[in-house]
Amino acid sequence: MEKSEQSEEKIIQLGKSLIDELGLTHTHNILSRWMAHYLAELLLRIEGITQDNEVFALKKEAADLILKLWSAREDLPIAHPQKNLQQIIETLEAIQDTEASYLNAFYRYPTVPKDNQWASFVKVVKEKTSEIFKITVQNALGSKAVQDAENWYSDKADFLNPEDQHLLKILKSLSSGQPVENPPENNDQVDPKNIQHSIKRIGVLINEQRDAYEHLKQQFRNDDAATDNEE
């Protein structure tokens, strides 16, 4: 990454975040602990210096060290939210890919009317299924886990590689679903009332899908009856 004056401040903020995550005393990784200490000292010196040329040199050194730390983050004892969410993210990606392949194919055909009974039915089923899945994921993981992971990546958005940017997009799609009231800190603290709220909501969504099915079925019964009368 080429450092500009604007991005340098963001790099410094990233460095402060890494210092917090690395910790100065609670890691057994000697190199990480040394780098965290050294970076913290650099940042303190920057804050205490008034001469521009010294500040410039120290900021450059700090920024270079921060970017090296960030590029090696997989080997550092810092948060790796994607590891905790990998299974569910892979599942969501598979579902999204399947949805995209079927729905894109459906909507690509220019001769298929988009206001017919089948298009309306597909729209309801897709929307309700997507919400059901998000509610299920949030209860399985705890919506706080999803939100914490999204916040972690959002705070570092300027430094994410394409893979991490894609992961952030998925996390945002998860957290944009129906929130669980009073999200649990972890799976051991799930409030039974929240579970019942989610189950009731899922029941409502399934009923709406069933209503759409009954409406579709009734439409074709009416069409068949009209055809028989004409004959």
Describe the model.
This protein is mostly helical and 231 residues long. The chain folds into 2 domains: 5-75, no CATH class; 81-230. The chain contains 8 helices and no strands. The protein has helices spanning 5-22, 30-48, 52-71, 81-108, 117-141, 143-155, 162-175, 192-230. Helix 1 (5-22) crosses helix 2, helix 1 packs across helix 3 and helix 5 (117-141) packs antiparallel against helix 8 (192-230).
Features:
mainly alpha, 0% strand, 231 residues, 2 domains, 8 helices
| Helix percent band | over 70%
Strand portion, in percent?
A: under 5%
- Catalogue the unreliable spans: 1-6, 177-189
Q: What is the rounded distance between the termini?
A: 74 Å
Which secondary structure elements does this structure contain, and how are they paired or packed?
Elements: H1 5-22, H2 30-48, H3 52-71, H4 81-108, H5 117-141, H6 143-155, H7 162-175, H8 192-230
Helix pairs in contact: 1-2, 1-3, 2-3, 5-6, 5-8, 6-7
